[in-house]
Amino acid sequence: MNNFISYLRIKYKYAERTLQAKENHIENWEKLCLKDQELEKLTTKALLSLIENQKKKYQISTLNNQLKTLEQYYNYLVAIKKRKSHPLINFRIKSETKPLIQGLLTEQELTELYENYSVQGHLGGQFNHYRQRNKVILGLMIYQGLDSITLERLEIGHIDVEKAIVQVPRISEYKLKERILPLASNQIMELHKYLTQTREELLKIIKTEQETKKLFPKSSKTRFSSITQSIKKQIEIENIHLLCGQR
Predict the structure, then answer these.
(1) Where is the Core-binding (CB) domain (predicted)?
(2) What distance in Å separates the CA atoms of residue 140 and residue 203, rounded to the nearest whole number?
């Protein structure tokens, strides 16, 4: 155990308080092992069984913190050649995604809202470009559960239309690591149009440098949260129409 703590101290430069917490994490995982099990030799299947039991005891954020320590422990074992492979690399438990509109819409109804979200602005012209961008953002909110902070950090390279995936970047030390999420089939065409046409038009409108890699470029005066709030307000209006059968 001392060697592992030294490894963490050198590699991550953790404070002593953090190192003590991580030592406690590993000791707790060791206590969970059966008599014929050793933590350093556990298989992925055995670990998942332990994790399933821990999910009943801890909040997801707490358990993910413990899983991070466990991941570092196996990284250490691989580094010193006590294990050939890592049994649980980048594994985290995803928090339950909150619905875009709490308590009102089912998954099917959210899909209908997305598909029926008009890309035609009332005044036409540049407003059509904004609406098409908003539909792409809406899709990422519904199907991938992304929040405003994550959406703002997305870059062009994070979207792979051909493979139908989005690479979600890590936004802070306390958030989940980078992860790859599949795109829904009905997102592909909108994303393709946005990447090849709409985004370029928006760059001209907001006069942002063409070189920016941001997936959703905006002016310096615009807060990204105001964009998502605007989309949500529009969705609430369309939601009322949906529930009343006025689509």
Answers:
(1) 1-78
(2) 21
107 C-beta neighbours (distance < 10 Å), count: 10
**Structure token digits, residue 26:** 């590993």
Q: What's the token pair of residue 16?
A: 């002593």
Q: What is the largest CA-CA distance in the chain?
A: 71
Dihedral sign for Cα 139, 142, 143, 145, please: positive
79 by Cβ neighbours in 10 Å (0-12 / 13-18 / 19+) ranks as exposed
Torsion of CA 147, 153, 157, 160, to 10 degrees: 0
Enter the tokens of residue 104.
Answer: 């009102």
Beginning with the edge strand found earlier in the chain, give each strand of the sheet holding 179-182 in spatial order.
159-160, 165-168, 179-182
The predicted pLDDT at position 127 comes to 87
Reported as a single tens digit per residue, the pLDDT across 60-85 is: 888 888 999 999 999 999 999 999 99
Residues 6 or more apart whose CB falls under 8 angstroms from that of 77 comprise 40, 83
Contacts of 148 (CB under 8 A, 6+ apart): 224, 225, 227, 228
φ/ψ of 43, rounded to 5, equals -85, 165
CA distance 148 to 141: 9
Burial of 93 by CB count in 10 Å (0-12 exposed, 13-18 middle, 19+ buried)?
Answer: middle
Quote the DSSP letter at residue 72.
H
Q: pLDDT per residue over 191-242, tens digit each? A: 999 999 999 999 988 876 557 899 999 888 888 889 988 888 877 755 545 4
Instruction: Identify the sign of the CA torsion 106, 108, 114, 116.
Output: negative
